[in-house]
Amino acid sequence: MPELxxxxxxxxxxxxxxxxQKLSACVARRADLRLPIPQDLHTRLVGxxxxxxxxxxxxxxxxxxTAGGWLIVHLGMSGSLRLVPPExxxxxxxxxxxxxxxxxxxxxxxRRFGVVLWQEGDDPNAHPLLAHLGMEPLSPEFTAxxxxxxxxxxxxxxxxxxxxxxxxARLLVGVGNIYAAESLFRAGISPLAPAxxxxxxxxxxxxxxxxxxxxxxxxAGGSSxxxxxHSDGGAGSFQLxxxxxxxxxxxxxxxxxxxxxxxxAGRSSFYCPRCQR
DNA sequence: AGCTCAACCTGGCTGC
DNA sequence: TGCAGCCAGGTTGAGC
Length: 277
Description:
Largest sheet: 4 strands, antiparallel
Distance between the termini: 28 Å
Radius of gyration: 20 Å
CATH superfamily of the largest domain: MutM-like, N-terminal
């Protein structure tokens, strides 16, 4: 589930309940997810108050100022976080807890592609997994000029299809398979279009489309933030209507042409062959 | 340098 | 009903 909007919605839902609270326990029910879970988190963090929850790309960053570092959480493909009452028994695939006096933040991740890490010091971006991350699409620096320079970059421009380029976290963070597809539809650009074949005006449109798609998804999730964080069902509560993603063979909402599905860089892409060129 | 692909896991759906 | 096969919202490192 988790692309940038889902991570941001989680952050918005968790922060009011957790920031300022003192940690009473930290529980890891297994030694690793995609990577090992640091074993000394309990010792490091118990008794310290959570200072803030930030986000970089799809990473959630829990700042512990008095403990002198950051707890880094990535939800992978199947991860979700929710708040449960203390003493709630952990169910299947619920691998990690941050326990506070009044509530427990519980990480569930069936596929275990997620990550729980510790970064010492003031700068979470010093962590090797964060150090090479690209542009934040919701930052003011994400502009048509930036994207144009990116696709024109290198010796001869980037020939790669635009969709895998958008999903390359070293270039641009937070845009996964769903939002790449939806943004390209909104911009009227085929996912197959070679990146450097797109003129500035179309890239400007794409920049806007990406920002708007992400913001609308956050807003849609935001209206149900409490449900998301508190519900047992968890991740299902996002209301965003997809125009193309997972709609292979169904009529385009704009022109009625059947939505086409192709494979790019090992991932499914969905697009309208008439609306997107 | 730039791009594609396999691998990491489990669960859910489809089709025989 | 059972089971094999395939697919899934991410990321990394290897290989071409």
